[in-house]
Write a structure and sequence with these properties.
Layout lengths: L11 H29 L10 E18 L4 E16 L10 E6 L6 H11 L3 E2 L3 E2 L8 E4 L4 H6 L8 E4 L11 E5 L6
Parallel strand pairs: 3-4, 3-5, 3-8, 6-7
Antiparallel strand pairs: 1-2, 6-8
Length: about 190
Amino acid sequence: MAKGRHSAGVGGGFYRDLAMMLLGIFLVGAAVFLLLYLLVGDGSTATTSTTTTESTATSTAPVQTSITTGIETTTSTAPETTTTTAEVFVPVRPPSEVRVVVLNSVGIAGAAGRLTGDLADAGYQTLQPDDYEPQQDPSRIWYRDGFSAEGNVLLEFVPGALVDPIPDPGLQPGADIVVVLGIGYEE
């Protein structure tokens, strides 16, 4: 007796359909992850001499994502988020309006005094140089509130230094910027 069409072989079409369904799920999943990566960004930041202001707005129009698995359909709704970035340029004060003190933490005799002279020649208001403990590695440029741009300009005089807010507000109260010469400082 000849076999009928339905009794010939059982698994070929099923496995092909299963493979196509799994491939479809994988492709939809990869597309969703790619979309999320592009929307969120890679999270890296860059250091610049400008101040960046960000504002985030959430719209009322929802974004819908549908995933069909062949068995059921899942729909999720999330609010759309838009991020706007604007750079605000902070004006840099002229050197004559910035009070700087240089402290030596590495013990190079006269280094703080020589750098103080260079800063005075460049037009900065300079205070009496002094020694500082503990020893810093690398050099530091510490600034008071509102003097971060001016601190970054002083990198010209102390390349490789870290520019940070002053860690102790009581340190050198008459100075807007405190330069601490550290390991690696070269005249």
